[in-house]
Amino acid sequence: MNAEELLIQAKESCKKRGARFTLAREQVFTLLTGHSGAIGAYDLLDELKLIDPAAKPATIYRALDFLGKQGFVHKIESINAFVMCHHFSECNHPVQLLICDRCGHVEEIQSSNLDLALRSMADATGFTISHQIVEAHGACQSCS
């Protein structure tokens, strides 16, 4: 799905949910669609300042928080960066990320077996999973 299609889908999703897709949120969303890998908030801020010179760190963090809550982006905790979700219509899906430590490429995968195993282990201990992001670091096919 290309950037324009993702933007249309995001706007429709926000409209259905009654969420405000402000100009700043749209700009950050659009910047994220231009990256195949993860990007840090301050790198996004540098890009946003080319469009809106008055942009501040709070602008980025508020937009990223909103986009994350909508399921449009995922935060990669281990490297403190963000990556676009290309199938965010499934907003509560388990997130499994393969992160290349050499080139920075991030691949989102969906393994129902991994999700089932994790949920089964959590259930056995009486733990309820409310949000799941599994991060695996290594080398992508191009870098191996």
Task: Describe what you observe in this structure.
With 144 residues, the chain is of the alpha+beta class. It is built from five helices and five strands, in the order ααααββββαβ. It has helices at 3-17, 23-33, 41-51, 57-69, 112-124; strands at residues 73-76, 81-84, 95-100, 106-109, 133-138. It has a three-stranded mixed β-sheet, with no helix packed on it. Strand 3 (95-100) and strand 4 form a beta hairpin. Helix 3 crosses helix 4. The protein is globular. The model has no long low-confidence stretch (mean pLDDT 91).
- Count the helices. How many? 5
The share of residues in helices is 40-55%
Helix/strand/pairing category: alpha+beta
CATH architecture of the largest domain: Orthogonal Bundle
For the termini, the CA-CA separation is 27 Å
- CATH top level of the largest domain is Mainly Alpha
Cofactor: Zn(2+)
GO molecular function: DNA-binding transcription factor activity; transcription cis-regulatory region binding; zinc ion binding
Family: Belongs to the Fur family.
InterPro entries: FUR (IPR002481), Fur_C (IPR043135), WH-like_DNA-bd_sf (IPR036388), WH_DNA-bd_sf (IPR036390)
